[in-house]
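Lab notebook, bench 4. Continuing the backlog of folding jobs that were queued last week. Each job is logged with the same field layout so the records can be merged later without manual cleanup. Today's entry covers Ribosomal RNA large subunit methyltransferase J, a 259-residue chain. Filled in by technician R.K.

JOB TYPE: sequence-to-structure
TARGET: Ribosomal RNA large subunit methyltransferase J
LENGTH: 259
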Amino acid sequence: MLSYQHAYHAGNLADLHKHALLASALAYMTRKDKPLSYLETHAGRGLYRLDAPEARKTGEAEAGILRAEAEGWLPQGHPLRQALAAIRATRGATAYPGSPLIAGHFLRPTDSAHLAELHPAEHAALSEVAAFATPYRQDGFQMAQAICPPTPRRGLLLIDPSYEIKADYTAIPRQIGLLARKWNVGVIALWYPLLTDDRHLPMLDALAGAHPDALRSEVGFPPARAGHSMIGSGMWILNPPFGLRDEAARIETIFRQRL
Ligand SMILES: C[S@@+](CC[C@H](N)C(=O)[O-])C[C@H]1O[C@@H](n2cnc3c(N)ncnc32)[C@H](O)[C@@H]1O
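JOB STATUS: finished
OUTPUT FIELD FOLLOWS
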């Protein structure tokens, strides 16, 4: 039974960190003519409304992307700003793209996209907005293991679980190990929460032991509500594209200076 719904959290500070790095990676990777594959294990519904009751209820977008835009956190021309502007131009001013539509902004007709989303309603909504991709109503890791190495072989896989199942923390290093062995050129990006009880740390230790050269970018922020255990956002990226380490450092500085 899946209870997590990203509509309550879309556009929050964790999305800002994750989506800024995703957009920067894809902007760089699509500069070359060579086609690529884009895969997501946990895609969500693809498109959110920042004036929806869910978003208003938590106020997370207000404290996230809406504050960042009002205060100009991201520089002019930043890939995430470009993607947001393009999506709002077609989908309306209150639209906020999830990771699939951010990717869709950068992908070309020669690229391939595979998106897994297990929740029936989220999958149905995703299928409506992501015509550029093949949607799968399947466990995301099963999909990724079946497709990798993808064709074209150049590409990026985003793993963005809701961590509802605590076993995710132990399963992820093993899943990534298998994927990296089959697809040694793949850019594999994992989002994870920074938690007050440090539950995420054994997973990161396991990943660091197996892949010491991966990029680890973390930003801290106040909990969305008093007593909430998420106090930051992390992105762990294997084979980061050129320039992404510098971009991660810039984003981390922005979060430190603004919060
Ligand atoms: C954090 S949200 C995804 C947000 C999205 N990546 C974005 O940035 O816009 C996680 C999603 O994973 C879905 N999900 C949970 N378990 C899954 C699984 N085993 N396979 C595929 N999707 C799953 C949930 O229904 C939820 O929509």
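OBSERVATION: Residues 2, 4, 6, 15, 18, 41-44, 98-99, 116-119, 122, 139-140, 160, 162 surround S-adenosylmethionine (CB under 6 Å).
SIGNED: R.K.
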